[in-house]
Amino acid sequence: MSKYDDLKFPFCEDESKFEKLAKIGQGTFGEVFKARDRKTKRLVAMKKVLMENEKEGFPITALREIKILQLLKNENVVNLLEICRTKVTPYNRFKSTFYLVFEFCEHDLAGLLSNVNVKFTLGEIKKVMQQLLNGLYFIHSNKILHRDMKAANILITKNGVLKLADFGLARAFSVSSKGLRYTNRVVTLWYRPPELLLGERNYGPAIDQWGAGCIMAEMWTRSPIMQGNTEQHQLQLISQLCGSITPEVWPGVEKLELYDKLELPKGQKRKVKERLKHYMKDQYALDLLDRLLCLDPVKRIDTDSALNHDFFWNDPMPCDLTPMLSRHGTSMFEYLAPPRRRVAAHPHQPPPKQQANPDQHFERIF
Amino acid sequence: MGDSEGRVHFRVVRFMHEAALRLHMKSVPLATACFIYHKFFREYAVKDFDPYLIGSTSIYLAGKVEEEHLKMRDVINVCYKTLHRRKAPLEIGDTYTALQESMASCELLILRCLKFQVVFVHPHKYLLHYLKSLQSWFHRREWEETPIASTAWALLRDSYHSSMCLHSNPEHVAVAVIYLALQCYGVEVPYSKYADTPWWKAFCEDVTLDAIKAIIKDILTTYDVEITFSTS
């Protein structure tokens, strides 16, 4: 072996150029580490590529993520720096492990929200939402769907810049083609929009907008607003908040595959504003949220209109997050944070099972 | 024997086109496959790798990259049969497993050689738009009588036999294949004589006649290589 040890591979550097500092994430996608470039001292995040199905070669999901991130260079999208790999040894059966190397972001939104000491002012919340919608506007105008919006996938640097992350489920979409069928087994259950729960397979950017709405409410409630245990349960929670799902409020919903198969609560009134006004005092905020959590994906507000919403253009104006973040020296990641408590708005539900809930996970099929 | 590298690559790309046809691959994924193939051999010498394995793997990888998924099994079977016409189709067995393993590791090798740069821009989308505009400039009958569109498309497809795609501007290539197709049929773009801007400038501002001619020269060289196959 020694004769191969000195070989240089010019195209893809060895992971040993980074010094792993800590594990900062674990999910269906694999592990994420905080690391430092030994030479430049730059901090990075390394995401391991899971080689689960070796028979079909390099995983399509990882390749898709790489391709999408190469296309999407934007202030509010996480920046992919390079790909690196491990040396082969007899211990890994002469197979390299690959890592995606990202610029390092100090916090994720789920981590920040679970820390009671972190308090957001209305102006700061506006800044978070503005950047989030700006990132979504950029990816949607590049014909990419994120498909996994949730607070844990929203990163925030210590300079208060928000980055959309984890494009492991993202894919390109087409506006014109009718009858395209994408998998509907995407988006973490709590952030999954009603059309996906009802089996829609020709969906669009509106699915990410629903997630943006859930995250927006979470900025005030501090924990996910609809924590279903099953798809059926999730639809029930949605109906209780957004009103019954009927062809009157959502023309065409009756044609969706699972409309007749799942039980949809009848006679529920829409209570988005009513239920959340105790948390969110701002009328503009309530109005924007109401439009993001619109049942009918066709009528759900798009990123452009959302960015033009009065919420962002009335006092207090969106303001810099840096001063607030600088008061919190340590990194906050959901993975490292204690489990979040449920909101008082859902007292009748069982507590969440950390990591164990199979419905939180999604299959990675293409 | 004594084949120049160019001739080897020509033959492998022709094999890739044939296999792609059997796999019902669309133009863009095939173009990506050829691009990947040429890029690989810009870095490595052909004597160090089996070009057919690189070609077959490029097809498989291009399917992933362009979201036109191919099963590895189909790619292996089709490529095998395309390469060994007289042999019986491949059975599941040691050879198959060996090929599968080679393709999986070869894919990683190619990805690393590409530095994981998997975004490719081809002339196809430009060509489509230019042809669409051109069509409305022509009289309907003249457009229907001369197969300019299909010729331009065929010229573009053939251009991937050489490594031209690596160093030419995709918009320029799209203009050049139209230029060549028009020349082939001795057709002129209507009212060219009276126009202030030549038609190609209307499509692509920064293209020059010299650039167009250089690309055409490259394309024609490929056909010269083809002739050497039929005469030798």
TrEMBL record, chain A:
The keyword Oxidoreductase does not apply. CDD domains: STKc_CDK9. Residues 18-312 form the Protein kinase domain. Gene3D superfamilies: Phosphorylase Kinase, domain 1, Transferase(Phosphotransferase) domain 1. One of its GO terms (cellular component) is nucleus. It comes from the Eukaryota. ATP binds at K47. InterPro entries: CDK, Kinase-like_dom_sf, Prot_kinase_dom, Protein_kinase_ATP_BS, Ser/Thr_kinase_AS. One of its GO terms (molecular function) is ATP binding. Keywords: ATP-binding, Kinase, Nucleotide-binding, Nucleus, Serine/threonine-protein kinase, Transcription, Transcription regulation, Transferase. It is found in: Nucleus. Residues 343-366 are annotated as: Disordered. Belongs to the protein kinase superfamily. CMGC Ser/Thr protein kinase family. CDC2/CDKX subfamily. This is Protein kinase domain-containing protein. It comes from Batillaria attramentaria. The lineage of its organism: Eukaryota, Metazoa, Spiralia, Lophotrochozoa, Mollusca.
TrEMBL record, chain B:
It comes from the Eukaryota. Residues 14-112, 125-221 form the Cyclin-like domain. Keywords: Cyclin. SUPFAM superfamilies: Cyclin-like. Pfam families: Cyclin_N. The keyword Transmembrane helix does not apply. Belongs to the cyclin family. Cyclin-like FAM58 subfamily. PANTHER family: CYCLIN. This is Cyclin-Q. It comes from Batillaria attramentaria.
